[in-house]
What does this fold into?
Amino acid sequence: MPTMDTLQLSVIVISFNTRDLLRECLQSLLAECAAAEGSLAAEVLVVDNASSDGSAEMVEREFLNIPNRATPVRLLRCEVNLGFGRANNLAIEQARGAYIVLLNSDAFLQPGALQRSWQLMEQSPEVGIGGARQVGPDGSPQPSARMFHSLWRDATVYFGLASRFPRSRIFASLDRTWADLEQPADVDWVPGAFMIFRRASLEKVGVFDPRFFLYYEETDLCRRFKAHGFLVRYWPSIVVTHLGGQSGRSLNAMSKGKQRVELWRMRSMLLYYHKHHGGKAWLAMHLEHLLYQLRFWRNRGSRDPDRRSRGEDARILAGLVRQAWVDTSGGTISPAQPW
It folds into this structure.
């Protein structure tokens, strides 16, 4: 087993009711670690966020205390769902590697990705956080190299300008869809489904802001890294297959679960805006509310049942963004967790 002095990487995987995906993720991850044995010593920390599907038991049974495996796996079991940032903070406290890698349980490293990420960070001391090229199961690109949220950038997405003009630097700046995905780039932030950073840098910047339960926490962390003079870099040679962005596109109906997740996103959006933009949080709330109101008015009188359904969804979302404003007192407080 690697010692503290020789351990280069600590890979952290957060799981909440993703047992089968978690198994595949860990199998893929450990295969990557095995392929890099001799040049890269790593450990894997799995944080189970109070899953009810047997995820923790599966990890204990199939991945802990396996003889003759060079990469140790540790399981941290939480009594309640800590969300993304706080669960990662828990693992970071116990991680022993010089570099920390965050990997979603629905994300899978393509061959060589883990060793390549370590090598690139070793060669780039100016980089604080490194990100990967994320693709769906069919190889389709997912947003991987992004710019910080602003009222203008959010508006271009809300009102369809970003999707209508994907090659425009003006209208498609949030997700940088105009950029060449094959070229490395210094960006504002990279998604938390995969990111790598130095422990030494993290000690200067601080861990995830625990007020964010889910969403915007990696954006906030990247912003703080940049404020400390570190670069955030997108590396297309590190490729990660991520299922989350793919499956999220199918969540159209305003089910109770979908409403809950949307409320979490809205709360985090307001917390982020107030933290980094002050009074613009009020404008951000009204901008999103306006979008839903316009969508509702446009579709409510239609004879088309699909359009009427979209109008009803918009009415619900308009209410949720108002609720998020109240829940967070205008982005100034985080509601009691778990949300």
Q: What stands out?
A: The beta strands are 9-15, 42-48, 73-77, 99-104, 107-109, 127-135, 185-187, 194-198, 231-242.
